[in-house]
Structure formats: C-alpha cells, structure tokens
Amino acid sequence: MPNSNRLPLEGEKLLIIEDEILIALDLEATLLDAGAENVELFTTHREAVAKFDGDKYTAAVLDIRVGLETTYDIALRLDEGNIPFIFCSGQELSEEMRARLPDTILLRKPVLPGDLIQGLVQAINRRP
Fold it and tell me: Is residue 24 part of a domain?
C-alpha cells in the first residue's frame, strides 16, 4: 500500500538553473517544501557548466535563457543521461530544440508552485 504521507518530490536531488535570484530562491523553496532531498542552484550559465555533474541529479528545472546564454547544452546533457527535466521560462523553445526534445515540458513564467511540482513529477514519472 502506497504511503499517502509521502511528499511528491521526496528523495529527489534537483538542479535549478535560473538567473533571476528571487525566482531561483522561490523555485528552490517550492521544491524543498515538496520533499526534495537536495537542491543545487546555479544563477549563471558559466557556473552551471563548470560545476555540472549529471551523476548528482535525479531531475532538473531549467530557465531557457540565463544571461546571454541558453541552457540548451545542459538540457541535451541531461537528456543523454536520462535525467528528467523541465523548462520554466518566459521564452519559447527554439524550433531546433522542440524537434530534438519533443516531449520536454515547458512551463511559462510566472508559474504557480503546484504547476511546477506537477510538471516536474510528470517528467520524473517518464524516467526510463
């Protein structure tokens, strides 16, 4: 019998890449409140690329544009590693990325906490 007291993101080790610090901290708080075991937060593309360790994460939330860069390279690395992720952004995915990642969830900012959790859980449940 499933434990009904289990939080939706219990035990997950999550990555957030978001350059707007207040949004990033809000996302982090939402995911921790939903039971995430750990959340690693990067606010610049350079830092994210330099410190990225796909083995550390069970899922991720990515803004599409971080400063002048996109997170497409990180999204492709996550996809190659079978690590579920969602985009949470004010922008649309490029046509090339929609073609390469057709099932990727894109949540438009501003996003409600429940929608964020639901989108991430949906991506996690698709995990092979």
Answer: yes
Q: At what angle do helices 113-125 and 21-33 cross, to 10 degrees?
A: 60
Segments forming the whole domain that contains residue 97: 13-113
Question: Residues 14, 39: contact at Cβ < 8 Å?
Answer: yes
* 3-class secondary-structure state, position 95: helix
- CATH number of the domain within which 86 lies: 3.40.50.2300
Reported as a single tens digit per residue, the pLDDT across 61-105 is: 999 999 999 999 999 999 999 999 999 999 999 999 999 999 999
CA–CA gap between residue 40 and residue 52 (Å, rounded): 10
Long-range contacts of 8-12 (CB under 8 A, 24+ apart): 8/34, 8/35, 8/117, 8/121, 9/34, 9/35, 9/36, 9/117, 9/120, 9/121, 9/124, 10/35, 10/36, 10/37, 11/35, 11/37, 11/58, 12/36, 12/37, 12/58, 12/59, 12/124
